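User: Reviewer 2 asked us to show a designed sequence for the structure in our supplementary figure. I'm pasting the structure tokens here. Could you produce the per-position amino acids so we can include them in the response letter?
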């Protein structure tokens, strides 16, 4: 079902589905050619980066590539997205090569260490993987502990050599786990490498001197020469128009605006009769909100469903159920939960680290956007029709009673003093006929039989008051 929905959304957002293109040679491979699949991470690591890495690795496996070349130049990003990429690389049966073009900081360092080979451009750097918040301040130790263990275990996956020298057994790691965790924790000291109480960052030459990268290269072509590959074809992942649209729509600031439009559209729709333009705007905003998150693998089917269930419950509370109770409260909760969880990657839920911060961040984004939208909608609804441009869309004149405006006819007041015939028994109410017109009447004194003459005393509360004559 998800595949069908994904295809539908893709058709709506873009008509471009070609992700792969041959760069070096024709796409018809020679039997002796080595297939190199290349993709880039050259921006902040997040959901979009994870999606590109996932699709690239899966495509490389489909075409039976011999190597995956990851071209890196990043200052880092979200830990959960980086860990997802790391896990995908570690589980990949194809040999992976990281080429660090200038920087592989923080989450970029973690991804690099996961690859089988690391090559760096002279002047590049790798390290500084301390977990920080949005202001750049280091997070509490439980977060650093998770990152330390992740960096250490990733380095350990590349194995070690056991060397016997005399009576001594020497363990030589292919990628030293202590160096990896020193890139996170400033308290770790390694003689001859880091003892300043600072987080470790290697230059390209330092990484090579300490066996943390396999070599230095000016470009990826030189990397392929260093690993002994001569006759090859390059297949490179290219960002399509669809990817560009998705990357734009998953921006947190834009997501907040879309939430405001969704809530604002629903508010104005509830204020107006029938189904009209505000609902159409809300539906469009909801599509632009959920579609890219769904394609990114963030929003699940059940999260989208509970959002719409919440909207339905709110509608029932407003239009069907009197008052405001369980249905309305449940609707608000489900709406917030659906919007919030759709923004969070569910891939990494470590019992120690988890992504509870991402959940809280998305929750606050949704709630703040909703309250801001309601405030602006109420303010706008008051200002819109009083502005000079829109004042003619609504009736502004007040029809005062003192000026002769009333909501009912005044003919009955003219009946006072007139006589008529009771056409039913008045016990004490019934009907009378005056001047060939039938009126509801009530007897002031006793019962009045049918066909007896009556006289009108007054008209009050929608009834003519009469007595028998």
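Assistant: Here is a per-position design you can include in the supplement:
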């Amino acid at each position: 079902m998800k595949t069908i929905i994904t295809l539908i959304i893709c058709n709506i957002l873009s008509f471009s589905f070609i992700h792969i293109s041959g760069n070096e040679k024709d796409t018809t491979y020679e039997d002796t050619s080595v297939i190199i699949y290349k993709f880039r991470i050259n921006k902040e690591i997040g959901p979009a980066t994870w999606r590109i890495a996932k699709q690239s690795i899966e495509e490389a496996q489909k075409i039976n590539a011999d190597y995956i070349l990851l071209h890196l130049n990043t200052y880092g990003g979200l830990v959960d997205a980086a860990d997802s990429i790391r896990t995908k690389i570690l589980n990949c049966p194809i040999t992976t090569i990281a080429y660090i073009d200038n920087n592989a900081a923080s989450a970029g360092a973690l991804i690099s260490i996961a690859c089988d080979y690391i090559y760096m451009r002279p002047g590049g750097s790798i390290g500084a993987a301390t977990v920080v918040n949005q202001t750049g301040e280091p997070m509490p130790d439980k977060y650093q502990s998770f990152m330390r263990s992740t960096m250490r275990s990733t380095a350990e996956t590349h194995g070690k050599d056991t060397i016997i020298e005399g009576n001594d057994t020497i363990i030589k790691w292919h990628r030293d786990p202590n160096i990896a965790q020193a890139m996170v924790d400033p308290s770790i000291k390694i003689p001859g490498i880091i003892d300043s109480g600072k987080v470790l960052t290697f230059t390209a030459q330092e990484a090579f001197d300490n066996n943390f990268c396999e070599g230095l290269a000016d470009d990826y072509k030189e990397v392929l020469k260093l690993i002994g590959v001569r006759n090859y074809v390059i297949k490179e992942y290219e960002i399509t128009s669809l990817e560009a649209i998705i990357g734009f729509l998953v921006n947190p600031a834009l997501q907040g605006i879309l939430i405001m439009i969704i809530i604002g559209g629903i508010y104005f729709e509830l204020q107006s009769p029938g189904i009209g333009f505000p609902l159409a705007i809300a539906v469009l905003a909801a599509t632009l909100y959920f579609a890219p998150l769904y394609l990114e693998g963030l929003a699940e089917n059940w999260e989208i469903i509970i959002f719409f269930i919440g909207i339905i419950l709110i509608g029932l509370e407003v239009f069907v159920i009197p008052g405001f109770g369980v249905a309305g409260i449940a609707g608000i909760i489900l709406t917030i939960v659906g919007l919030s969880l759709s923004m969070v990657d569910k891939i990494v839920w470590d019992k120690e680290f988890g992504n509870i911060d991402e959940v809280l961040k998305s929750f606050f984004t949704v709630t703040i956007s909703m309250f801001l939208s309601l405030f602006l909608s109420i303010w706008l609804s008051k200002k819109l029709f009083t502005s000079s441009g829109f004042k003619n869309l609504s009736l502004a004149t007040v029809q005062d009673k003192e000026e002769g405006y009333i909501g009912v006819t005044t003919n009955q007041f003219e009946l006072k003093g007139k006589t008529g015939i009771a056409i039913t028994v008045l016990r004490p109410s019934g009907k009378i006929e005056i001047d060939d017109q039938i009126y509801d009447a009530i007897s002031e004194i006793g019962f009045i039989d049918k066909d007896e003459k009556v006289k009108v005393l007054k008209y009050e509360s929608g009834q003519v008051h009469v007595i028998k004559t």
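For the response letter, you might also mention the following. DSSP finds 14 helices and 16 strands in the chain. Residues 258 and 285 are 5 Å apart (CA to CA).
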